[in-house]
Amino acid sequence: MPIISVVDLRKSYKTYRKPEGLGAALRAVVHRVPVEVTAVAGISFSVEAGEMVGFLGPNGAGKTTTLKMLSGLLHPTSGVVRVLDHAPFRRDAAFQRQIALVTGQKSQLWWDLPPMDTFVLNREIYDVPDPQFRATLTELIDLLGIGEELHRAVRQLSLGQRMRCELVAALLHRPRVLFLDEPTIGLDIVVQKRIREFFQLYNRRYETTVLLTSHYMDDVEMLCPRVMVINQGRLIFDGAISQLIERHAATKYVTIVFSSPVARPELEAFGAVISYEDGLSATLAIPRATHSLQAAALLNRYQIDDLDVRDPGLEDIIGDLFQSAGGDGS
Amino acid sequence: MIQIRQGRAGGRYRAIFRTCLAESLTYRSQNAVWVVQGVLPPLFAIIAWLAIYGGRQQVGSFTRSDMITYYLVISVAWYVIGGRINNQIARAIKDGSLAHQLLKPYAALAPQVLGEQCWKLVSLVLALPLYLVLVLYFHHDLHLALSLPRLALALASMVLSATIFIILEVILGSLAFWTTDTRNLFEVYDLLLVLASGELAPISLFPGWLGDVLNGLPFRYTFSFPVEVFLGKLGPTQTALGLLVQLGWLAALCGLARLLWIRGLRRYSAAGM
């Protein structure tokens, strides 16, 4: 039985149009124009226990809204959500004891107190027996490499130190389902890597089900065998990362720097134009079978300063997917 | 099994209280400001009233002694009953910190409500020496014949008052689900509270229709009513009736707060997180 199941989930908000100019603002006092914004437009999926799933999508695609509905923060407008056999928005204590949400945006740590105070508070809030609390705390501190920052006020910690403490606070009650919303945002590469390795190890050790949104493809590529791509509130891909890459494996990306500008339509004869800047540089997606021939033809026809051939990365593939689905790909 | 659960639930709120207390101790200067804010207004009110009394023994039903006691008691009672919770609730709604509270297995507003009790507790402890000085200074004027049953009734009505006060603050704070511009609204409310709760002057001194209006509002049942009971200004019937009115207001306001909370959460977008 899946640990998370979602059927035709929708969320829309009613907001009011913000008018521009004084006259319009005055009219809006009396008559406001409602606008219905659809954040999630009917998605369905299920997740088995122990899976690590990555949510990908541009800003405003509906990733965070979906996570908020799964964790019980938001009421769905319609559709069915079941997590651990609970309806999350009812916020039953039995459900809340089994989940945690970590977000890079908003801390759960008490700002003016050392992180240890938040840990001890969470022990009481989640009824964690003392021996288990000690064991888990020691293990997490060791895995994340936390030291003397345990006893300094949170406001004095660096972002990296704070984020590691954030993870301890979220995991002390050993949640079965973990929602991670941009957990590595703003962190330097060393800390990002450390946190990634931590999640990998933690998931393997405890079979925690993890749903992750991140702007860093490396996070998703390393952690999540399965990805869901959301765009404009719709699920446009759900499957293994390898499947996504394979689908695009038939092409090579050729990036060219020209000595003098070349018109875009001319380039389209060689392959799909992925990027194009002022005619002086462009990236083309060219079928693998013919890419060397086409590259030679390009070199023959144009004055070329530089030419680079590579396999498309996950980032390229996702960008491609957004474009073909009609998103802005931002 | 059930007993253990209850014990642990108590432990949960005790732990939140302890953490809030630790936090409020980190802001020493703010506590000092609160002490001054708490002690100065009643002191000035007493000085002004003593000038008004001049040679007179009584204004309305209040003797000099009643008046001095009234302001001293109501300002100490503020630390038990009052506080400023509405803006903290509104801030938590607007900046997204409510989200973390909604995800945890406790009453979602516990950190704001308990946190405020900690602030008041620390401030009261700091202010007590000053109140002691005031009591010693005015002790010739203070005549308080306090019986045990009256004290018990005053304490009971104070518990109800404190609960009514918190529920009113929750109602106000919940408005942040609908509007981001809560500040002006809260300022108007806070002003209304000072005028209509007995903080400014005893409600029984307001004449005619104004007195009637003030008696009909719930604000009298925050600060004024328990102090009236404490001072022995009310007969047994009035006291019993007042307690019933308190219970009535409490039920009605709880209903309204619950309705706003449930509706508000449906609109909530957890923005800022």
Low-pLDDT residue spans of chain B: 1-7
For the termini of chain A, the CA-CA separation is 36 Å
Q: Average pLDDT of chain B, to the nearest integer?
A: 90
Shape of chain A: globular
Counting helices, strands and paired strands, the structural category of chain A is: alpha/beta
- Count of DSSP-assigned helices of chain A: 12
* Oligomer status: heterodimer
> What composes the largest sheet of chain A?
6 strands, mixed
Major sheet description of chain B: 2 strands, antiparallel
CATH superfamily of the largest domain in chain A: P-loop containing nucleotide triphosphate hydrolases
Please write the string of helix (H) and strand (E) elements of chain A: EHEEHEHEHHHEHEHEEHEHEEHEH
**How many beta-strand runs of chain A?**
13
Total separate domains of chain B: 1
Q: What coarse outline of chain B follows from CA principal-axis ratios?
A: globular
Q: Please state the CA-atom Rg of chain A, rounded to the nearest Å.
A: 24 Å
Class inferred from helices and paired strands of chain B: mainly alpha
Strand content of chain B: under 5%
Strand order of the largest sheet of chain B: 1-2
Describe how the helices and strands are arranged.
The complex is a heterodimer of chains A (330) and B (273).
Chain A: E1 4-16, H1 22-30, E2 34-47, E3 52-56, H2 63-71, E4 78-83, H3 93-96, E5 99-103, H4 115-125, H5 130-144, H6 159-171, E6 177-181, H7 189-206, E7 209-213, H8 217-223, E8 226-231, E9 234-240, H9 241-247, E10 251-258, H10 264-268, E11 272-277, E12 281-287, H11 291-301, E13 304-310, H12 314-325
Parallel strand pairs in A: 3-7, 3-8, 5-6, 6-7
Antiparallel strand pairs in A: 1-2, 1-4, 8-9, 10-12, 10-13, 11-12
Chain B: H1 2-24, H2 28-53, E1 58-59, E2 62-63, H3 64-81, H4 86-95, H5 97-102, H6 110-137, H7 148-174, H8 183-196, H9 208-216, H10 224-231, H11 236-267
Antiparallel strand pairs in B: 1-2
